[in-house]
Amino acid sequence: MQIADLKLLNFRNYNKLEVSFSKNNIIYGKNGMGKTNLIEAIYVLALTKTFRSNNDKILIKEDKEQSKISGNIIDDIKKNYQIIITKNGKNVKIDNNSYKKISDYISNIKVIIFNPNDLQIIKDSPSIRRKLLNVSISQLDNKYLKILSSYNKILKQRNSYLKTMYLNSNTSQEYLNILTDKLIDLGTQIYDYRNNYIDEINKLIDIIYEKISNIKGVSIEYLSDFNKLKKEDIKKKYIELQEKDMLFGMTKFGVHHDDLLFKLNNKELKEFGSEGQQKNAIIAYKLSEISVFNDKINKLPILLLDDLFSELDNEKINNILNIIDDKIQTFITTTEIDKVNKNIINNSKIFHITENGVEEVKI
Predict the structure, then answer these.
(1) Structure confidence at residue 128 (pLDDT)
(2) For residues 244-264, b (16+ Cβ closer than 10 Å) or e, as one string?
(3) Distance of CA 130 to CAs 148, 243, 262, 289, Å?
């Protein structure tokens, strides 16, 4: 899978941009010129959301009403993808056919991104690690996204009804049971998706980690309330916790509390790992995903490497680049073009970004 070209209108700092890509692409320039904005546009075209914020409206150039991204994606055949972002929502199209449900659009374009902010994944809150899982699995199977959306909807309804029950003793227990049963059914499916995905990652991550750092012993533990429980045992747990849930107006048990534990030699990297070890583990995780995508759906994703060179030494960078499948389309952003291996430069399309715009150059 490759993106052949990209057109931007009123996106971030770009008024209008049309650019064509090759298999390997290097985007360089000073900070603040729009390097990350360019690969962010590819990410948004794929997933309809930015990796930098929860607010899509910030993608619209200041004083403009809407932003538009379009690009031709070559998979088995070439298709044109388009997303229009307005203050009121988003509209997505494939070959000029509109999709009412975003979930029907997502999973068509596969992307994996490394961004410096990812280095906080191990240290950050569990919700960030759940998002990491959700983004990847939804690209492999958009049915997962629909199940997750339904789960979140039922969870919201259950929490609201718990508050009602707490305030009104005449409310129906039967309705809560219906919501709980639905939550268990959807939650069990989500658990299976996530558990299987992490099993696949664990087959690869230690091998890749060793290639990056010459150290073995990395693994990921998937933590879930549903772990190793049968449906009837999960149901009993919800019954046990009902009074507490009513008191707090919140469902305290379920896959919405899932987490990932990154480990090195069975010790938590969050507590015992150095910053370098944590960085390498996240990068190994991301590179493992490439193989999982290829194995599961026989497609290589588009790989976006944002500012990788500022985070790692040259040896580790070369180790990482040697691991990457030479068939995958890559985008590398950097402020220091001199740090990039000459062989990579010679086999890449080079874009220089300045305050005057984006220019293809030869180095």
Answers:
(1) 95
(2) ebbeeeebebbbbebebebbb
(3) 11, 27, 13, 15
Range of the domain at 38: 1-110+299-363
Query: What are 315-335's pLDDT values in tens digits?
Result: 787 788 888 878 899 999 999
Counted domains in the chain: 2
The pLDDT mean for the chain works out to 93
What lies within 8 Å, CB to CB, of 154 at 6+ separation is 179, 182, 183, 186
- Whether 264 and 274 have beta carbons less than 8 Å apart is answered as no
Ranges under pLDDT 50 in the chain: none
Same domain, 240 and 282: yes
Give the C-alpha distances (Å, rounded to integers) separating 117 from 101, 154, 217, 221, 287: 29, 31, 24, 22, 16
For residue 5, being part of any structural domain is answered with yes
Q: How far apart are CA 255 and CA 170, in angstroms?
A: 29
Rounded Cα distance, 38 and 15, in Å: 12
Dihedral class, residue 307 (left if φ above 0, else alpha if ψ from -120 to 50, else beta): left
- Residue 225 CA to residue 4 CA, distance in Å, equals 43
